[in-house]
């Protein structure tokens, strides 16, 4: 015990800088810069001396051509790393760097700059391979987490209200807590996977990476920071509602959750692609929010109400079926508008990868709608007559519709990371001079 106390005392008396790894203070050119003329070198300044190697700074054109004119080296007492550049033509360039800090940790980073052009974000730097299948799965889990959170809160407040039983309440909080945890944790993992692709490094090396160009210099990074902090606040509100047994606190959690979902709409295709506008951003937000409430409500009905509260099955089913009709209508209208904005030609539906994924998603939505129609025209009348609440077939059917809805989210995860087809360049107007 004395040895432990002595070790702790020594650790506290050591200067913090002796244990801290080096941090990048400045870079020239800076990330995201659009330079009027070509720079002669890349210069990276750190807050402490670092070990610089010949290949510590790699600069490449948009086509992957190396444009460094020599090896990287340290100046200014090891606090600055620099490399000379060849004459750079107009275009975008990617800088990837790595140095070793005094305590032995390898720190690294990536950013882009342009010579007389706007450079791409770091996530689209040269060498980035794009999302992997694992990233699609993570994105699907993230969407599912949003649905469990936002849809669960909406179902509890709009459908159940004050009729919740203790057993239902316990299941509700378990499912909704799983949703908010997935929204936070899988959001962080998705950001790290995107950073790993941009850095071209394994996840383990990102611990000491300079993530500021991604977190501060891109819409994706800004949305990630705001949404992660926001969902942490939602988790705190949800915990207080459970701890104090005050369901009224679920209302601010729902409103905040819906507001945070807009981060995806403000940082995705609807905000940055050609032809995007506030209308496409609003349509994307409506489409996403309606889908989350629909999927989350199905999960609540199938996994919370049906197993725990037989007395509420009939009323919950009937009330949710009315809400589901409105949600599906919003999804379809917003989805059709987004398809119109993102697909320049109808043939892109079967020729372009984005259109093919959209067709698959539409097919799954059609299956889900057919399943919902069966519930509306067959199950709903039976429940209105007071029959079927204990039916095993109804329970299995709800589980099946929930599974199809989750499959829709999986395809949506792939669609989000797919680039819509480029619009054909406008042909210059032809003018003819007529001599009279």
Q: Considering DSSP H and I runs of 4 or more, what fraction of the residues is helical?
A: 55-70%
State the CATH architecture of the largest domain: Up-down Bundle
Mean pLDDT, nearest integer? 82
List the uncertain runs: 1-19, 427-436
Distance between the termini: 106 Å
Query: How many distinct domains?
Result: 2
Sheet-strand content, in percent, reads 5-15%
Task: Report the sheet with the most strands, covering strand number, pairing sense and barrel closure.
Answer: 5 strands, mixed
Output the CATH class name of the largest domain: Mainly Alpha
Structural class determined from secondary elements: alpha+beta
Principal-axes shape call: elongated
Count of DSSP strands: 9
Radius of gyration: 27 Å
Sequence of secondary-structure elements: HHEEEEEEEEHHEHHHHHHHHH
At the third CATH level, what is the topology name of the largest domain?
A: Formate dehydrogenase/DMSO reductase fold
Tally of alpha and pi helices: 13
